[in-house]
Structure formats: structure tokens, C-alpha cells
Specification:
Strand 1, helix 2 and strand 2 form a beta-alpha-beta unit. Helix content is about 40%, strand content about 20%. The strands form 2 sheets. Strands 3-2-1-4-5-6 form a 6-stranded parallel β-sheet, with helices on both faces. Strands 7-8-9-10-12-11 form a 6-stranded mixed β-sheet. With about 350 residues, the chain is α/β, with parallel strands linked by helices. It has 2 domains: about 200 residues, Alpha-Beta Complex (inorganic pyrophosphatase (n-terminal core)), CATH 3.90.1640; about 120 residues, Diaminopimelate Epimerase, Chain A, domain 1.
């Protein structure tokens, strides 16, 4: 595998190309923000670009500049497959295993296109031809900024649309700039994006103050009725069954962020949201300090992620997953109570 070479990438993109940008299933703010940020940059240079999302994504991201140009793979199979087959370049953003884009991954793997991975997650699979990768980046959007400004040396293309998308990605994946990897350099990048037109207050409002009534009532239900605290392990978790998802008529993304309320309790070091979906039970883990939430997800729940933010899934029943999660905690007691 070749590492990303500045001269090679600049030369390869010096003339108009057919480019596909894709990101992980159920895209979040960083996935969509980085993808549309790169899209809005590449179209300025005359490339023919489409963004393909493997699945749908939350309504609170639909306002992003040029969102109408995103193709949802599950709703446009033939068009998506043809675009991937005919692409000169495929940019893979915010994921590093093709399994993260579901069935679309098979077509990306088979494509003869040059594959460029831009990502900040651990242990890349190695399907890419070029990569811009750092686990120290707080968001993939940060790496896209670096790609445009420092690798392509084209800061002049950071227009308002690009800046808005990249700001959204960095803001959401850094927990509104509160996670430990929000370095001084991240703040300098964010300041530059604001200089280039990102309206920070407006973006925050559109992402975080854009809930449906159903979502707020669901949140209240979770906190009042479904929150369990295990004080001996400084752990809190919320469980949601499939019936409750249907009762509150939740849309894609409506459970996002709920786990953070459990983590916000004084003294809690590990929080989990355990949700029964039609196909699997999904887990979202958050932690503080050095506690390895990603290790639990990788070791026990077929997942992974970052140290303080990770996810997993299980084919077991909801009750079995809850029992398994509780049974794991004694193994980590020393880390949880120190």
C-alpha cells in the first residue's frame, strides 16, 4: 500500500475526474460534514463528484450545503453501483473497513478506481491505495481540512460551503470541542473555518437545537424510566427495547447523544446506551479519562472505536446483552473506581 504522496495526489487530481465520496452507514455529523466538505471543494476544481451514503441519516444534517446531491445507496442501488464502477477515484471518509459501508463495500472493493482513505479510526483494513490517516485527529473533517490546505495547498478553495461542512464535522466529533483531542491546533483550524464563512452559532443551533417533540419525550422517558446506575462501578446505562422505539416513532439519529446524559452524572466513568433494533442489539459506549470503551466493544461486542467513544452490536437478546455488559464490569473495576 502506498502512503499518501503530496505530488502524486496533486498530479492525479490536476484534470477533471469522476469521483465518488462515501462514508460509513448511518452517517453522523463528521461523516456527512467531511464528505460534503470534500465534495464542495472538489466541484470547485471541475471534478464530477457524487456523495453516496450507504444508508439514510438524521434530519438534523439535511441542511448541510449541497445535501440534496447525496445519494442514499439503499434507495438508489443501480445508480450507486454504476457510479462506483465508473469512478476514477473513490474517497472513503470516516471509516477504514469496507464492512462499515455494508453491501456497498463489495462494489467499492471490486472497483478499479483509485481508493483514497481519509480517517482517524484505529487499525485500517488496508483496502486503500492512498491514505491520509491519524488516530490523533479529533475528526475526519480535521483531516479533510489538512488535505485541502496542506496537501493540496489550496486554502483559497475554503469557501463558505466547505467551511460550514468541515466545522460541523469537527464540532460534532469533538463533543462541541470538549474531548481531550481538541488540541490548540484544532481551535486554530476552527478559527480559520469561521474566517472562511462558517457561522458557528448558527451551525450549533441547526445541529443541537433541532429536535422533534417525539425525541424530547423519548429522552425524558429514558432518563426517568430506563436509566440504571451501578455506583460500585461508577457506571450508568440506558436500555431501550424495540417496542419503545416504535411507541415514540423515532427517526434516524433520534437516539444519538442520549448516552452522553448518562455520562454527565457526577462520578460516572462509563456510560452505555443499549438499544434493541430489528436486526441486532446496538451498543454505544462513552467514557472519561483513560477508560478504554473501545476495548470493551472490540473484545465483547464485535465493535470498536475510540477510547472514550465506541460502539458495538450483538445477535443476542436485549436481556442477554444487558447481563453480559454487567458481567464484564468486575473485570474493569480497578479502572472504574480509581
Amino acid at each position: 500500500m502506498k502512503m499518501l504522496e503530496i505530488s502524486a495526489i496533486k498530479d492525479l487530481l490536476s484534470t477533471p475526474k469522476h469521483i465518488v465520496i462515501t462514508t460509513h452507514h448511518k452517517p453522523d455529523g463528521d461523516a456527512l460534514g467531511s464528505s460534503l466538505g470534500l465534495y464542495n471543494y472538489l466541484v470547485q476544481k471541475g471534478h464530477y463528484v457524487r456523495v453516496i451514503a450507504p444508508t439514510d441519516y438524521p434530519m438534523f444534517l439535511h441542511w448541510l450545503p449541497n445535501n440534496p446531491n447525496v445519494i442514499i445507496y439503499t434507495e438508489n442501488l443501480a445508480e450507486s453501483q454504476k457510479l462506483v464502477a465508473d469512478a476514477d477515484f473513490i474517497f472513503c471518509l470516516d471509516f477504514n473497513w469496507l464492512s462499515r459501508i455494508n453491501e456497498l463495500g463489495d462494489y467499492v472493493r471490486e472497483s478499479k478506481a483509485v481508493k483514497v482513505m481519509i480517517d482517524h479510526h484505529l487499525e485500517p483494513e488496508g483496502f486503500d491505495d492512498y491514505r491520509h490517516w491519524s488516530i490523533n485527529a479529533c475528526a475526519t473533517a480535521q483531516l479533510v481540512y489538512d488535505f485541502i490546505v496542506n496537501i493540496m495547498n489550496e486554502r483559497e478553495f475554503l469557501n463558505k460551503d466547505v467551511a460550514t461542512c468541515l466545522y460541523t464535522g469537527i464540532m460534532t466529533d469533538s463533543g462541541s470541542f470538549r474531548f481531550p483531542n481538541t488540541t490548540a491546533e484544532v481551535h486554530r483550524i476552527v478559527a480559520d473555518l469561521i474566517t472562511c464563512g462558517a457561522e458557528n452559532s448558527k451551525i450549533h443551533q441547526l445541529v443541537y437545537d433541532n429536535s422533534s417533540e417525539n425525541r424530547l419525550r423519548f429522552l425524558g422517558h429514558c432518563l426517568l424510566n430506563k436509566l440504571e446506575i451501578l455506583t460500585e462501578y461508577n457506571t450508568a446505562f440506558i436500555t431501550v427495547n424495540e417496542k419503545e422505539l416504535q411507541e415514540f416513532n423515532l427517526g434516524t439519529g433520534d437516539t444519538e447523544g442520549v448516552v452522553n446524559y448518562a455520562l454527565s452524572i457526577n462520578g460516572i466513568k462509563l456510560a452505555a446506551l443499549i438499544v434493541e433494533r430489528p436486526d441486532k442489539v446496538k451498543l454505544s459506549l462513552r467514557s472519561t479519562g483513560d477508560f478504554p470503551a473501545n476495548e470493551i466493544c472490540k473484545k465483547f461486542f464485535n465493535g470498536g472505536g475510540h477510547r472514550n467513544a465506541a460502539g458495538g452490536a450483538s445477535d443476542d437478546s436485549l436481556n442477554e446483552v444487558i447481563l453480559k455488559f454487567k458481567s464484564i464490569l468486575p473485570e474493569y473495576k480497578t479502572l472504574l473506581v480509581q
